[in-house]
Amino acid sequence: MPTIRSGARDHSPSRVQLEAVVDISTKELYDAIAFENKAGGAWTQGWAVKYRGDEWNREKLKVFVVPHSHNDPGWLRTVEEYYQERTKHILSTVVGALRKDPRRKFIWEEMSYLHRWWQDASDSEKQDFIRLVKSGQLEVVGGGWVMNDEANSHHFAIIEQITAGNLWLRDTIGVTPRNAWAIDPFGHSATMAYLLRRMGFANMLIQRTHYEVKKELAQRQSLEFMWRQGWDSANSTAIFCHMMPFYSYDIPHTCGPEPAVCCQFDYWRLVRVGQAQRCPWGYNPEEINEGNVRERAMLLLDQYRKKSTLYRSNTLLVPLGDDFRYVTPQEAELQFTNYQAIFDYISAHPELKASVQFGTLEDYFSTLRDEVARSTKSSSRANEDEVPGFPSLSGDFFTYADRMHDYWSGYYVSRPFYKAVDRVLEHTLRAANILYVFTHAKCRPKDTSSFPASYSNAIVSASQNLALFQHHDGVTGTARDHVVEDYGTRMHTSLVELQAFMAASVEALLLQQQCKSENFRQWYEPEESRSKFNMLAVKKSVRLASGQARRVVFFNPLEEAVEHVVMVVVDDPAVCVFGPSWASVDSQISPEWDETGSNLSTGRHRLHWTALVPALGLATFFVSSAEGVADGSSCKRAVPARIRVFNSDDKFSCPNGYSCSLETVETLEITNGFQTLGFDSTTGMLRSIQISKAASPSTLVAVEEDVAYYSSAGSGAYLFLPDGEAKSLVQAGGLVLVTEGRAMQEVHVVLKTSIGGGELSRSARLYHSGATGRKSVQALSVEINYHVALLDHRFNNKEIIARFKTGIDSGRVFHSDLNGFQTIRRETYDKIPLQGNYYPMPSLAFVQDSRGKRFSVHSRQALGVASLQTGWLEVMLDRRLTQDDGRGLGQGVMDNRPLNIVFQLLLEENVTSSASFHQKLSVPSLLSHRVGAQLNYPMHAFLGKIVESSVVIQETSMDTQWSSLASAFPCDLHLVGIKALRPSQLEDVEYGLLLQRRGWDESYCRKGGTDSCSTLATSAKVDLHSTFSNLVVSKVTPSSLNFLHDHAETLPGRKGAGASAAGIGIVEMSPMEIQAYKLMVE
Ligand SMILES: [Zn+2]
């Protein structure tokens, strides 16, 4: 029989040009599966697996037993606690055990732990480790800092965490990983397949996918496939993926379909010897001896043969490990010697037509590829894009269920406070890396104590702390309380350090004098700060006496110039704002409302004005007291906003200096000329969005906002198990405060709810465009801020959502994003319970209809989203749960913190046709990309010292503007990041640059809806030698996304991808792609 058995093929023709033609799409799997959870016998979630016995006559069964130990960098213990108690012993044990016998093998994944062990290990242990890796006995798989979560993590942070681990691995051990290993993330993202491919990985492995999906793929012999991006019509992104077939990665669920049998081959469960839990199926392991070896070998081989029938080749992978295993030499010896005895018996009996040995992932995948090449007589080893005989697959593996109706959608939302901090650290690190590159170029540090090299440790440590939190018990919110505090403290420490660095960078870049420390006056401080790791950031108030002024410098970390209505907080409303050339600009002053609603007005004031800040650049504004302004400058006083009040009780008193009117109309509106928002004044909830267009009738869409909750007695950190449908929380009578001025309009409501009062408030804002009359990106979307504080028992076992019921006839289809990198089609199925219809939403979800209307919700943090009825989108905001959900954590989620969850809502009309509605592939419009970028990569503000305004005018040692871009980027080209690859390096500095060409829907408005977008990547050439005005780039080298493979155009899948042009620094990329470059700077 042919080795490569043909599995069921499920061809679906391509309906649209962009879409990849694949054998299997996960959408088709979901349509096909009944989700009935039928009992499967010994293999509970499968079937009674049988084989004839002649399957291995021509090509024997080649089994690789792969010893591994799953080390979580934080979960029930902190990363350092685990390291001290377990991991340092594990690494030493493994090195010792492998040294004894060259037939023994092992794989290791987490570089955070290896890096930590490297500080403690003896020189001989390190030499042995390196020798074992080079000899192939020990393989580093994945080699990321952690094994990252794939639902809540943003692609920037995934690249950062894999690169941090891979670069350390290359620099320290001298190897480059080829095979990725993700056995524990709770569902798997197609973005990982893309990123790993573009990092030069040849193969990947995944485990936690829906048990029904595993079964369906197993029945089609399609658990191994070429995983390809849904948008990849040119077939350049596919990576060979192995999906494990069973319930878990532990030993009972990896040797074959019958856990009661496999458990008997976990020798750390040996009665009276081993220390792992006894086998729960009643049969325990027996040590191998001459008397039982045949019986034991045949029992195990039977499982291997059964498992092998689920796959197409006769090469079989059998992981051998569990969480924190191989701690002691005794444990390692029990596993290695007992298995070796079984292997020896099988080798001595060729009639069994099997070879069984310890192996690494590389052993498995290379043997499989050899077998494929032999049987198909092709040279597949040389061509990693194709593994003949295996199906192609597109789509992703969310939402994960491990049994029954236990869907793991709760962790999309658990600990939302820290999911928000994660993204703040991410965008702050990105911004700091950009500033590091340009201050390094300007200041040319002579040693590591001079600026900015003096901050290199802070930058490296921030990257490692961000990387650590991407762990699948970090950003997921599934660790114990004290571990969450450890992650939070690490992120907070790094944020403080990065902000200090950025404040110094602002001074260095604006300083006209040489960049020497004696010229630094520590002029700037960050405008926002947190008093503690678990507190919200607070804006510092600008306090000015007569004749005083203060600089406010904005850093725009985006590749496009940004026009934004900015806001600082002031103590005294009698102020005026001056622009970079000391011309007074229009500004608005309004009261700052207390989010908890207890005092309504805080006594401080919000000062808004329009700032235009150059791309990757700085702009200085001056906030001055309106009194005693220097001669010769005219001060345009900030204009007080008009306040309208609805549902006022007697407590409301109008803040001094403002005029307030008490109103009772039912429908209230705010408008900025581009959009009009309608609200129900009795509840304060949004009711409609109207887009005004100059030449045609305006479009009005109902957008009914609601805040509701699910109740549950089963939900926990991982699982969402609602008792029923969500119930609305909102009651009529909440205090509604409308603030209207020339810069900003706002409807703020302190929600009156059925549970209590004051814990929830909502602000909806429209911003105006600048005096030029141009439409800014900000003016075309709606800012929504939910303040949520589920701090006491009244919210126990409640999960709070914001729901938008739109008039868009979307059916039950919506789109949500994967890792902020791409969007994917979702469909709500009745055959799946409510919790299974929830999906990750790291940054975006939208619904659309055939008439070309689209409603999008952009988020700046990871949350969960669903569309339960046509036109609906709901996003879960927070959850407070008293119970554990039985997945090992052993606690509920009760450490809720006050949160501000910010969305940008975008209502769009398809201006050309409705073509995109019929595509399975729907991508954001260019405007939507820009809205998302401005939300996720906001400007950073810094306050200068208070000075006499007359002095500021005469100040000549400081520039007021600075820009690093010599020419504008095309507006579909996004700077993912630029950074010094080794920040402490002083000479031969290498910068790593990552660019993404956005994939966008051309049927929505070109130019991104505004006038400020003038070129697209199709027409504009970007030459990296001359892109940055402050960098003299001497050499541009295309690289893989982890910067390990130079000239990555020669990597599989990159043939002809602008290789020649890239070599001379011209950027040529296909839509959706991310490309890395190394820049050498003179
Ligand atoms: Zn884990």
From TrEMBL:
EC number: 3.2.1.-
Bound cofactor: record note: Binds 1 zinc ion per subunit.
Pathway entry: Protein modification; protein glycosylation
Cofactor(s) needed: Zn(2+)
Pfam families, alphabetized: Alpha-mann_mid, Glyco_hydro_38C, Glyco_hydro_38N
Coiled coil segments of this chain: none
Primary residence: Golgi
A GO biological-process term: mannose metabolic process
Cellular compartments annotated: Golgi apparatus membrane
Membrane-related topology note: Single-pass type II membrane protein
One GO cellular component term: Golgi membrane
InterPro entries noted in UniProt: Gal_mutarotase_sf_dom, Glyco_hydro/deAcase_b/a-brl, Glyco_hydro_38_C, Glyco_hydro_38_cen, Glyco_hydro_38_cen_sf, Glyco_hydro_38_N, Glyco_hydro_38_N_sf, Glyco_hydro_57/38_cen_sf
Positions of the Glycoside hydrolase family 38 central domain: 406-491
Reactions the enzyme catalyzes: N(4)-{beta-D-GlcNAc-(1->2)-alpha-D-Man-(1->3)-[alpha-D-Man-(1->3)-[alpha-D-Man-(1->6)]-alpha-D-Man-(1->6)]-beta-D-Man-(1->4)-beta-D-GlcNAc-(1->4)-beta-D-GlcNAc}-L-asparaginyl-[protein] + 2 H2O = 2 alpha-D-mannopyranose + an N(4)-{beta-D-GlcNAc-(1->2)-alpha-D-Man-(1->3)-[alpha-D-Man-(1->6)]-beta-D-Man-(1->4)-beta-D-GlcNAc-(1->4)-beta-D-GlcNAc}-L-asparaginyl-[protein]
EC category name: hydrolase
Membrane-traversing stretches: none
UniProt GO MF annotations: alpha-mannosidase activity; carbohydrate binding; mannosyl-oligosaccharide 1,3-1,6-alpha-mannosidase activity; metal ion binding
Superkingdom in the source lineage: Eukaryota
Keywords: Disulfide bond, Glycosidase, Golgi apparatus, Hydrolase, Membrane, Metal-binding, Signal-anchor, Transmembrane, Transmembrane helix, Zinc
Family: Belongs to the glycosyl hydrolase 38 family.
This protein's name: Alpha-mannosidase
